[in-house]
Hints:
Largest sheet: 6 strands, mixed
Number of strands: 9
Amino acid sequence: MCPTIQISDDNFTKLQELAVPLVDTPDSVISRLLKSYTQFTANHSDLPVRTPKPSRPIAVDGGVSILKFTESNLPDLTHTTFVSGNADGRVATDWNHLMLVAHGISFERLNGDVNALKILSSANIKSGEHFDHGFKSIKGYPFSVQGVETNKACAIILRLARHFKFPVVVEFRWQQKERAAYPGQSGRLTFAPTA
């Protein structure tokens, strides 16, 4: 099943202007744009990476500064090392484990309906225990989730947390890499559901 998206009339008109009549679909035009964008950014690695401004840093143990983020100012998490995190108080050891924990919480809130979980999550989910091709499972749950890169894992975690209204807190550190959003800095992502 393909996801359904809504675009403004103005953007649809722009897509029509880029389309080849009687050949293109909205999907093929978007695909071509994404391919061009990917090629452009690969050939222009000197362009600055867009980094959202964190809220004010907070002081923690030993005077170490941690940049605070929420869902609304989420940074690029590429080149981060997971330090600690939990979803609804359930501790995880890395980004993909936290994503798996979020799926477990969601599964429980769906009263054990794996098919409903597959529809709500954008992750690749298989029924049963699987450990090949990046799949992992949590003992006691009848499904496995395929691991993904950090930004996608975070997006999936927040999507499930938003839908099922459970809190998420993650502490992480950017590696000392030029393309990292905040090289060498520590960050904290907090999602607190609204009632």
